[in-house]
Amino acid sequence: MKLFQPKRVFFETAALDYPLGNEILNRLAGTEAEIQMLNSTNRVTGIPGKGPQQSFLEGKQTLVVGVKKNIHFDSCKPSADFEFSFASGCPGKCQYCYLQTHMGKKPYIKVYVNIDEIFAKIKEVASANSDITVFEAASASDPLSVEHITGALAKSIEFFGTLENARMRTVTKFTNVESLLQLKHLGHTRFRFSLNSAEIIHKFEHNTASLQERIQAANKIAAAGYPLGFIIAPLFIYPGYEEGYADLFRQLSQSLKNIPADMTFELISHRFTGSAKKIISERFPGSALDLDETSRRRKYGKYGLVKYVYPEMAYVRLKENIISLLGRFFPASPIEYFT
Ligand code: SF4
């Protein structure tokens, strides 16, 4: 697929105090991107677009290069101990994306250039723990989607390769993995690809790589010796979903050149909030996404936030069906969690 090329790029002035800020500036200088410096407030006000759809599209074509302040890591269960990020936002346009409610009306992509400061904090946090500490790199972004601009994922992979007591996990729907294949990762980064049934990818995962492209990239990552995994998310219940996911697992099992012994699966059923429904309906009018609260169960999350999840019986059936399909196609691969 075509790599993300921003239409406009805003730099925080302080970003140019860091080598990575200058590297990104040089990399983008020869492109068609319109480059501007932000003033001292760092407020991003120059993105055009009126109305929810145009604002969304213009935001998704905008990159901000900045410095991450207040570096701290939230916990990230069940996939890792902590999450950290060297980017936020994503050029993908998946309708169900959990970032819909996080990035404002014009959801620009932001990349951070002070990655050495982020690495120092990772070292500090990992040193305070007697066990191996696992860090998730993809909870605020899809880091591979901007890797050709920042190179930050490669730097992180090599950084974690130097740590005995920490591991990184990342996940992607993109496929530009070539720059990562020769890195000294020492098996300390688990690389997962996010997959779904053909129908869900086609209907809802706009501006991401095709299923076949993701599987090809997974083959390259496995051949380069990285621990490999797949996140099947969000799992939807729709007419014929069992066949849809059976086809996905069949295609995956036939297309993977080798199935590494420790290849993992993570399974996440679909859920949404009321505010996500409102935003998605404005950005994707007439969307076929199932956002009917009346057919869901209310689940209370952090700070009393209500999430609409599948009702108990439907959830249990979905779980049994997917686990049984994985048992058929990948009997030796561990399932890390189903949520
Ligand atoms: S690729 Fe991931 S982060 Fe990007 S829009 Fe899709 S779901 Fe969101």
Summarize this entry quickly.
The chain is built from 10 helices and 17 strands. With 339 residues, it is of the alpha/beta class.
Can you offer a commentary on this structure?
With 339 residues, the chain is of the alpha/beta class. The chain has one domain (8-338): pyruvate-formate lyase- activating enzyme (Alpha-Beta Horseshoe), CATH 3.80.30. Helices cover 32% and strands 22% of the residues. It has 10 helices and 17 strands. It has helices at residues 19-29, 51-59, 115-127, 147-150, 152-161, 198-204, 211-223, 241-255, 274-283, 312-329; strands spanning 8-11, 34-37, 62-66, 75-76, 80-83, 87-88, 93-94, 109-112, 133-136, 166-172, 189-195, 205-206, 228-235, 264-269, 297-300, 306-309, 335-338. The strands form 4 sheets. The protein has an 8-stranded mixed beta sheet. It has a 5-stranded mixed beta sheet with strand order 2-1-3-8-6, covered by helices on one side. The protein has a two-stranded antiparallel ribbon with strand order 7-12. The two termini are 30 Å apart. The mean pLDDT is 97. It binds iron/sulfur cluster. Iron/sulfur cluster binds at residues 90, 92-94, 97, 99, 142, 173, 208.
